[in-house]
Amino acid sequence: MPDHKAPQKQRRGTVANRSLERGLELLRAFGPGAALLGNGDLVERTGLPKATVSRLTRTLADAGYLEHDAGRKAYRLGVPVLSLAHSMRSGSTILLAAAPLIREVAQQRHINVGLAAADREDMVYLESVRYNQRVSLRTVVSGQRVPMALTSLGRAHLATLPQAEFDALMATFEQRGRSGWQRLREEILDAVREVHERGFCAASWQPEVIALATPLSIAGHRPVVLNFSVRSNESVKAVVKELSAALLALRDRIAAEVAKIEG
């Protein structure tokens, strides 16, 4: 007679994990420009059933991760979310090691220096010091997202991935229906080759903004990417010649400092 107990436990575990994943999807929906969302907004943003969203928002509000605005019949992120973010930053050995070095190089060279990590199809800034000699078009802060496919940060990250993960992300980029996909695909492949051959890649996805990025892989930590960016009328080649050696040197200094801290 077959034993149904093990499969039942497995199904229950799968259901529990799915509920957690769905709850996290609701929290993810609160991105830039989405400070206050009702259940209808969350249904639209997540694709989850209305009844599921209602149940999860009540649970998250009871736990404090969402705050309910009864007058507007909507939710905003709760205080524990900020506390988690602070714990992540303060507990990161890489950020502890990198922050003073990033600030030092940004000030010495009057450039923008940042550190980012991947989250799905975006890169998320973990640290950013904006110190360009010209006024920047953007204000970049910790937690800000930039597109993986378009940026030197994202392309440097893609160069570190196993083939199966790389192919899956490339398929996702293509499915988004972005115009000029073939050109973008070739730019990504060129950047990946450049990382493998020279340790870094460069991109200019905004007018007059040129960025260089290099992966920073440290045992025991998720991969992160270090970048320099400047607003310049010079060619990408000229900026690469000026800054690439300093970028790689900073990468190595951060890795050495992490090793020193962790003993």
Domains counted in the coordinates: how many? 2
CATH class of the largest domain: Alpha Beta
Distance between the termini: 56 Å
Here the CATH topology of the largest domain equals Beta-Lactamase
User: What does the largest sheet look like?
Assistant: 6 strands, antiparallel
Strand content: 15-25%
Q: Helicity level, as a percent range? A: 40-55%
Strand order of the largest sheet: 5-4-3-8-7-6
Radius of gyration: 21 Å
CATH superfamily of the largest domain: GAF domain
User: Which structural category fits the helices and strands?
Assistant: alpha+beta
Write structural notes for this entry.
The chain has 263 residues and is of the alpha+beta class. The protein folds into two domains: 5-78, Arc Repressor Mutant, subunit A; 91-262, GAF domain (Beta-Lactamase, 2-Layer Sandwich), CATH 3.30.450.40. It is 53% helix and 19% strand. The protein contains nine helices and eight strands. It has helices at residues 5-28, 39-46, 50-63, 79-90, 93-109, 152-158, 163-175, 181-198, 236-262; strands at 66-69, 74-77, 112-119, 122-129, 145-147, 201-206, 209-216, 224-231. The strands form two sheets. It has a six-stranded antiparallel beta sheet with strand order 5-4-3-8-7-6. Strands 1-2 form a two-stranded antiparallel ribbon. Strand 1 and strand 2 form a beta hairpin. Helix 1 (5-28) packs across helix 3. The protein is globular. 27% of the residues are buried. Residues 1-13 have low confidence and may be disordered.
A few lines on this structure:
The chain folds into 2 domains: 5-78, Arc Repressor Mutant, subunit A (Orthogonal Bundle); 91-262, 2-Layer Sandwich (Beta-Lactamase).
